[in-house]
Amino acid sequence: MPLKKVYLDNAGAGLISDEQRKSLAENVLKDSILANPHSTHESGRKTNIIVENVRNRILSFFGASKSDYSVIFTSNTTHALEMTARLFHYNSKSNQPIVASLQSVNWNHSVLMMFKDSHTSILGMRNYFHYEQLVVTTYEELNDYLNNDPKDVVHSDCNHLFSMTAESNFCGRKYDLDLINRLRKKIPSLHVILDSAAWVATSKLDVTNFDISFMAFSFYKMVGFPTGLGALLLKRGREHLLRQNYFGGGTVNYISLEGFEVDRKEEVSTRFEQGTIDFYAIAALNSGFDDLERLGGMEQIEEGTMKLAENFYHFLSTTTHHNGRPIAVLYGNGWKYFGTDKLRSYQGPIVNFNLLRDDGNVIGYVEVEKMADLYGIDLRTGCMCNQGACSEYLGLDADVRIRLRDSGKECGDEMDTVDGRPAGSLRVSIGRLNTMEDIRWLKMMISTCFVNSSPDLFTTFNADDIPRLGELSKISVYPLKSASAMVVSSWKTSNGGLKWDRKFMVVTSEGVPITQKQHPEMCSVKCQFSANSLLLKDRQGVENDLEIDLDRVGREVNSRVCVKDISALDCGDLASEWLKAIGLPSGCRLLRLDSEDDKQNFSNHADYLLISKASIDYMADVTGLSYHEVEGRFRSNFVVNFGSNSAFLEDKMERIFIGSTEFEVTGKCTRCQMICIDQKTGEKNPNVLMALRNLRGGTSMTFGVYLKQVKQHEAAVRQGQKVFVTGVVQNS
């Protein structure tokens, strides 16, 4: 597999160009002394000038000046939205709001309004209960409402707030911003905060064309760096709409020590920026804006990104399987203008879709994401933090959403379908640094892996067909997560799996777990126990063995694996140097769980993993690999020979005994690109994952089952023990 990286999640965060990195190093970080802009010494004054010049540059970028808007720096778009929701003065009684429609709304009582197609950060604004009515609507409904009686002006003593999506982060649909002026004309007391985060990343926006009271956006979506910096534009003359009670450093001229008198600073920006702003990050924005100009400005960026998006959309909308069925279903109302001059007014460079099998069934987005990872393609999956658009386009009504919640659905998990329907989708978002070669690579991946795929070869079994007796043919322990297996003839079980299984882990200097996915060098690490020590061996024979004393207590650290917070011990600098010597990143650390009897381990999902010999045989036959190579790639704890040639029998098992130790099946193991790694060479090849995808056809890419020991006590398992199947899944 060629080593290539294609980044297509620009709606999540933009990338930094090489020119931008160089500029940052030369102009911001090298020999540059910036200081607190509240200080009046030379460095403080210089920093304050830089900050104010950046404010002016931001306003100019949006076609405005200091007489039009104030720039209030925030940590991101969400912070700007939250601050507005918290401080907005509705001029009405605080109350438990009611949900209203456009037809039933009473404009004599304060209103918070938003589109269904809104980011979660907009939905969160409703939980500051300073308003009296909540209206969640669509562009079409609001447009019809204005068209019914456009001359009838609504007068109200209350202030109202409309948090409007400029461009959908879900599908890239652009909304007609002329709606803002029409709304303000009909309802003068309705103020608009525009969520422009997706729009301004690839399109020009002149705020003076629209009567926008507030606008929220993030700079990292525009220029990649700095992260953690956004802004709220506040229209001059509307400062009174935000009521700020708290005051922090740099926001006041005078404070009474005897009472409550406070004289706040006159400049609007400094009134709302509490404490010291991130002045280094703000100074770095100049390099970002320079990069946008280097690329020809926002008009050229929009032209280039849309050209790529249109190319990919055309591929998905016209490519079919061998039987003529479409390969994809696409989402986003803006794309209905595809092929017309109107497209770029109503659509940004985002393509949202799900892939389909040749029988018309949806392919879960997790399966597609795993294949994309294998090809080095980064794209976004799920609902993109936009439940409204996701539910609308995918047809997920309230009952389905509640069922997903009750079944344990969480953001970022692998539950990607419900009743055969998608629970999320795939999003390709194109940024200023993407090229046509990136799109060709993406199309090649889809064509290779998901077009004209083989028919489903998966065999279903009746419960009566499942063998009830087998033999434990192999036991593998993985003391160091993602290192080579340690094959044993007998071993003890413990509260958290096989004794010492995945009790050690390597992390980067930032605390990120290191696995074979990113660092195939882990394949070369062998484990062996000697007396009261763990020996780490370099299979290449270059480095001497590293001995870890199991009684030695190191510095306690905290690490995170998947969703588990785990307390661990650092094994010291000598271990770190050894890991560096075998090719792992400088500064990485070897961690150990702080107790060998701890119920936790560094396993991603479960205590034990079992696969059948027949399943390995079948996969070896399909891929042309040897039995032992396939077995090594699937990294199980137990291999069981049931004396049957039928693959995937383990899928039907619910409960088993290995000797006298009882285990229950807790789920199937969904596979990722780890199985594409040759455990001897570390080289990646997609054939195993692609074969598994084809074999599993309409189901998830599972291979093997997770086990949990029923009674949590120390026991022993040994090679050759009888395996008894005492519970099987009954056919429905």
From TrEMBL:
One of its GO terms (molecular function) is catalytic activity. It comes from Bursaphelenchus xylophilus. SUPFAM superfamilies: MOSC N-terminal domain-like, PK beta-barrel domain-like, PLP-dependent transferases. GO terms for biological process: Mo-molybdopterin cofactor biosynthetic process. This is (pine wood nematode) hypothetical protein. The keyword Oxidoreductase does not apply. Transmembrane segments: none annotated. Keywords: Molybdenum cofactor biosynthesis. Pfam families: Aminotran_5, MOSC, MOSC_N. Residues 579-726 form the MOSC domain.
